Amino acid sequence: MVRLASYAILFSGITTSWAAGIPARRAMAVHEQRELPAYFTSAGAPSPDTPISLKIALTASDRDGLEQTLWDVSTPGNALYGQHLSFEEAKAFAAPSTASVSAVTEWLNENGITDITTSGAFGEWLGFSTTISSANSLFDADFQQFTEINGPTQLTRTLVYSLPADLQQHINLLHPATDFVRKINAGPKFRAFKSTNNTARALTAPSSCNTVVTPTCLQDLYGIPKTPATQTSNKLGVSGFIDQWPQTADLKSFLTSLRPDISSTTTFALTTLDGGTDPQAARDAGIEADLDVQYTVGVATKVPVTFFSVGENNNDGDLGGFLDIMNTINAETAPSQPSNWLTCAYDFFPVNFCSVSHSLHSQLCDAYMTAGTRGVSILFASGDGGVSGSQSASCTTFVPTFPSGCQFLTSVGATQDVAETAASFSSAVAAYLKALGSTNSGKFTPTGRAYPDVSAQGVDVEIFSGGEEGTVDGTSCASPIFTSVIALINDRLIAAGKPVLGFLNPFLYANPGALFDITTGDNPGCNTNGFPAKTGCEDPVTGLGTPNFASLLAAALAA
Questions:
Q1: Do 237 and 111 belong to one domain?
Q2: Beta-carbon contacts of residue 384 (< 8 Å; ≥ 6 apart)
Q3: Is residue 8 part of a domain?
Q4: Quick check: is 89 in a domain?
Q5: What is the DSSP letter of 287?
Q6: Same domain, 235 and 168
Q7: Strand partners, 219
């Protein structure tokens, strides 16, 4: 009877609201799929009418053109070097096309989804709410509840989803869908002092710097000037997540004790997003946040510092905070960026443990790429697990961390002692691989992204937190230190009427002699000694080396 009725309607030209209200089912194609990670277990299916909020990331109009532009404006010697894009110029590459927006919106409307929100720096995200049942039907998915084994994380995810085949060219990913992010590495630990031995180095520093690293030690080791910056348009951004809050009282104590030559009232600006705050009770002090603020305000003398406090209203805490901070920066339309550098000392669990899908990794990495075309430098700590990443040393292959492995940011490893040897936890490159020979063969991908790119001091770094004085270790220390060096160099560039450095890596790899080569140390893990530091090579322990301010400044002015 149904076939006959349809036949009659088709040939009589009669239409009904019943027939018009049922769209033809589009041909579907699997877009992403995965196996359940070993550290999660299924907790059953949620009720079909359970609400779920989803977002679709649309593809950029000209992603390849944007990447080429990044390399052009960032590579010394290129005719376009330093010609960073305006907001509108970046938008022409990064925004989705009108055709993509229309095609995906039409498909959602066909399926009864009309309340659609637009977000992202360029309107690249389409958000909507539906039910588990409708989401399963719309995406050929099977959303389930999952619980982290011996952990607190609970997620609603699917192991596979599909998209209409004719729309795949318009869509990068559905989120949250196949990502199983557990937590963010909480960074360094606050502890008491310890002693080591002193040996000679190219730039001298007191032997006390083997026991406690202070701003004065860094000025001695790297030739960082104490003279204040002069350009107010030059800004430095520090990001904070997972209830990490810097304390103005701790910063005042730090400056009073360790930078008495500058006013102890010097402070930082605050930008909040996703419900972020910055409470100022001693019990609210965040070791990571205090560290990052103290070693930017206290080393990049008089460079304006902004702390980005990111709350947890960001889609189950996945990459929302990381993406939202980049959207905030990339959406800035003024010629002067809200921050020319964003130092972030956090890393997600390793990508080869399938925490983050390739599509979501690309979405965040491309946000860093976009920022780079606009003259923003992004620096991340490389992670504190050596070659075992954030995992235990029982791993059988070396483990990369995320997002430090993104090629459009600068990854910072750590050194220790006045003689500067590689820190054991620090995680470029044909010459190094040749010198390495068969060591660790089969435990890493020799054609992948090599990191860290550079390093700085990361052991026994003195801070104040919660009213107490102590030291911390980690590549988390190295990231704000190296960022401060770049901030001061950019101040000099602006004063000379030159563009800021922007995406750093092409400049750094074009000037390896402007850094101090680190030749000793390794980063053990996975039941190995990891990678050894080697003379004259960009090694995967300390990268190109540690900063030589005078040489880097000279190279930057020449470029």
A1: no
A2: 185, 188, 390, 414, 425, 426, 473, 474, 475, 476
A3: no
A4: no
A5: H
A6: no
A7: none
Containing 369, the helix (H) or strand (E) segment is helix 358-373
Query: Does residue 249 sit in the same domain as residue 132?
Result: no
User: In which band, very low, low, confident or very high, does the pLDDT at 233 lie, cut at 50, 70 and 90?
Assistant: confident
154 and 256 share one domain = no
Domain of 351: which CATH number?
3.40.50.200
Rounded (10°) CA dihedral 460, 464, 468, 474: -30
For the annotated catalytic residues, the residue numbers are 288, 292, 476
4 part of a folded domain: no
Mean pLDDT of 78-101: 96
Counting the structural domains of the chain, the total is 2
* pLDDT digit string, tens, across residues 476-505: 899 999 999 999 999 999 999 999 999 999
23-37, 283-297, 318-332, 478-492: range with lowest mean pLDDT: 318-332
pLDDT of residue 446: 56
Distance separating alpha carbons of residues 378 and 308, to the nearest angstrom: 14
Residues 150 and 278 in one domain: no
Q: Of the candidates 129, 158, 175, which is a domain's last residue? A: 175
Q: Does the pLDDT value for residue 451 go beyond 50? A: yes
Which range, of 124-138, 267-281, 481-495, 540-554, averages the lowest pLDDT?
A: 540-554
What gap in Å lies between CA 61 and CA 51, rounded to an integer? 32
10 Å CB burial of residue 535 (0-12, 13-18, 19+) is exposed
Mean pLDDT of the chain: 82
Domain region containing 36: 27-59+96-175
Looking at 155, 175, 195, the residue that finishes a domain is: 175
Among the listed residues 423, 335, 425, the one whose alpha carbon sits nearest the alpha carbon of residue 389 = 425
pLDDT tens track for 200-222: 345 778 999 999 999 999 999 99
User: Is residue 422 within 8 Å of 378, Cβ to Cβ?
Assistant: no
Q: Are residues 317 and 461 located together in one domain of the fold?
A: yes
Q: Tell me the pTM.
A: 0.85
DSSP 403-437: TTT-TTSEEEEEEETTTTEE-TT----HHHHHHHT
306 and 171 in a common domain: no
* Band of residue 188 on the pLDDT scale cut at 50, 70, 90: low
Q: Is residue 530 part of a domain?
A: yes
Separation of alpha carbons 305 and 94, rounded Å: 28
CA distances from 176 to 139, 179, 287, 326 (A): 13, 7, 30, 18
